[in-house]
Amino acid sequence: MTSWIDDLTHVSWRDNFFLANFPLTQDTVLDYFSGSPFYDASCNNEQVRMQGLDPAVLNNMVGTEYIVTNQQEPSFFVIEKVYRYDKETTETLQVFYILEGTVYQCPSLRSLLLSRLSESFFHLSCSFQSLQQASLFSKIPASRQLEQGEKQGNLESKSLQQETPSIETSIVDRILSFLSNSE
Question: Taxonomically, which superkingdom (predicted)?
Answer without folding.
Answer: Eukaryota
